[in-house]
Amino acid sequence: MRLDKFLKVSRIIKRRSVAKEIADKDRIQINGKTAKSSSSVAVEDELTIQFGNKTLKVRVDNIKDTTKKDEAKDLYTVLEETYKDSDNT
């Protein structure tokens, strides 16, 4: 499955267009390698996503073409969630 579609279906990112934009700005890695929106995602892959001051690391547990809202959380496991300190004083 394409990276941008997985991010939308899993509801990590709400819109596919936003997922594509983030990926194409080199802010997503699959297994430590920079990924584009068209990159393939497989079960057991580790995704690292940079959102502004937050970095989210997840493991892909399942892949489905569509999900209901309550099923989306079963597609991945959050491995790490870190925040950058925005106070630079």
Report on the structure:
The protein has 89 residues and is α+β, with helices and mostly antiparallel strands. It has one domain (3-83): Structural Genomics Hypothetical 15.5 Kd Protein In mrcA-pckA Intergenic Region, Chain A (Roll), CATH 3.10.290.10. 18% of the residues lie in helices and 29% in strands. The chain has 2 helices and 5 strands, in the order H-H-E-E-E-E-E. The chain has a 5-stranded antiparallel sheet. Helix 1 packs across helix 2 (16-24). The longest helix is centred in the first third of the chain and has 9 residues, at 16-24. The model has no long low-confidence stretch (mean pLDDT 92). Belongs to the RqcP family. One of its GO terms (molecular function) is rRNA binding. Keywords: Protein biosynthesis, RNA-binding, rRNA-binding, Stress response, tRNA-binding.
Characterize this entry briefly:
With 89 residues, this protein is an alpha+beta fold.
| Strand portion | 25-35%
Unreliable residue stretches: none
Mean pLDDT: 92
At the fourth CATH level, what is the homologous superfamily? RNA-binding S4 domain
- By CATH, the architecture is named Roll
The tally of helices reads: 2
What CATH calls the topology is Structural Genomics Hypothetical 15.5 Kd Protein In mrcA-pckA Intergenic Region, Chain A
What characteristic shape results from the CA principal axes? globular
Number of E strands = 5
Q: Report the CATH C-level class.
A: Alpha Beta
Which structural class should the secondary elements be placed in? Answer: alpha+beta
CA-CA gap between termini: 43 Å
Largest sheet composition: 5 strands, antiparallel
Pfam family, one: S4
InterPro entries: RqcP, S4_RNA-bd, S4_RNA-bd_sf
Family: Belongs to the RqcP family.
Domain RNA-binding S4: 1-64
